[in-house]
Amino acid sequence: xxxxxxxxxxxxxxxxxxxxxxxxxxxxxxxxxxxxxxxxxxxxxxxxxxxxxxxxxxxxxxxxxxxxxxxxxxxxxxxxxxxxxxxxxxxxxxxxxxxxxxxxxxxxxxxxxxxxxxxxxxxxxxxxxxxxxxxxxxxxxxxxxxxxxxxxxxxxxxxxxxxxxxxxxxxxxxxxxxxxxxxxxxxxxxxxxxxxxxxxxxx
Length: 203
What we know:
The chain is of the alpha+beta class. It folds into two domains: 2-76, Glutaredoxin; 87-202, Glutathione S-transferase Yfyf (Class Pi), Chain A, domain 2 (Up-down Bundle), CATH 1.20.1050.10. 50% of the residues lie in helices and 6% in strands. It has seven helices and four strands. The chain has helices at 10-22, 41-44, 66-76, 87-115, 128-148, 162-173, 186-196; strands at 2-5, 28-30, 54-56, 62-64. A four-stranded mixed sheet has the order 2-1-3-4, with helices on one face. Helix 1 (10-22) runs antiparallel to helix 6 and helix 4 (87-115) packs parallel to helix 6.
């Protein structure tokens, strides 16, 4: 088993943090996305979408998409649970995971991909107006998350889940996207600090 990893990009990092929280070690194969190594024919044989991360099992089976990889490890190693214990918890984790991924991570990524000069070779065409259209969506999503965090340390309650991990990589991703967390979102700011303080954040 080996994990084809794209370095500090949010999705590969999300899997590494998940594995660190589980205490699981998997050999990493670094794919330099700045050098377009994910666009080679060889890598396309692992993932036709040409994106990292990709988990390759010992029999050659490949699993792509970061949450799918995390789900695989959750099923193999259910403790500590990062995707919920019972039907209600699992549904709540999935709800917040999708809210954060679709409504926060997505818009942040659009701002980054359509404005950052380093993305000019990957995002063709870059559409600055589309990036600007996503800025208010980031603020709207942060407002919803901030309200949800009023009386709990993590987005689903008292324990960290994959939804928090997605939140962490997204909030960190805001920096290269040149987006800021508004000071009035005090709960989000405190949440971010709690997540960054966990040892897994360095994965």
